[in-house]
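User: Thanks for the earlier help. One more: Probable membrane transporter protein. Can you show the sequence and predicted structure together?

Assistant: Of course, both are below.
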Amino acid sequence: MTIEIVLLCIVSFFAGFIDSIVGGGGLLQTPAMLIILPQYPIATLFGTTKIPSISGTSFAAFRYSRHVRINVRLLAFIITAAFCGAILGAYCISIIDSSAIKPVILALLVATGIYTYSKKNFGLHEEKNHSALRQVITGLIFGFVIGFYDGLIGPGTGTFLILAFISFLGYDFLHSSAYAKYVNVATNLAAIIYFAGTNHILYQFAIPMAIFNLAGSFLGTRLALLRGNRFIRIFFLVVVFGTILRFAYDVFFKG
């Protein structure tokens, strides 16, 4: 069991680092759990990953809040919608075949990667021309949808949130990353409530992983705040490419 904890802690550190910048830490953490602890049910492994995820994400949200101005009212609406969506997604994991959703996600990711790469100014400047009401309605919709996805599947949630804040609300990468962390905390908390209530969390793995995830988050947020939007954009593209590879494998090669 010791070697399993060591390996998972190493993975969790890098997951926290990646997740704190552009999301997508679950792309490392979730597959590692499935490979290293294959004897446990998938729901239990998913539930266990939420503890380290929320620790690193909470720290990143705190760090960003000290440097980025947050629209608390708008964020509260989005967090509420994402929380409800995540609860529903966690419940539906046992009754919905997630493999049916993955081809749609793959197509969306490919389009996202192409658009972000070709549009050099995408996410580099704030361009908010929406009314307050439109921002709330838009945030409620994508908050619920992405929250549902996080509860159901999980990996890449932070990346999708950043994309949504840029595409639908016009925020730059730095502000989008900050907002995404708060929403991701809510979706992780919702999933933890559900999985803890159904005894699907392995605390002997989750707690040490949480410590290392937090350490990775500390390093990642520091780097993102120092380097700014252009660095985050490049990192975003790298993570999107990695996410495409992951979902392409699931769709075309995984039995």
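User: Great, one quick takeaway?

Assistant: Residues 173-197 form the longest helix (25 residues).
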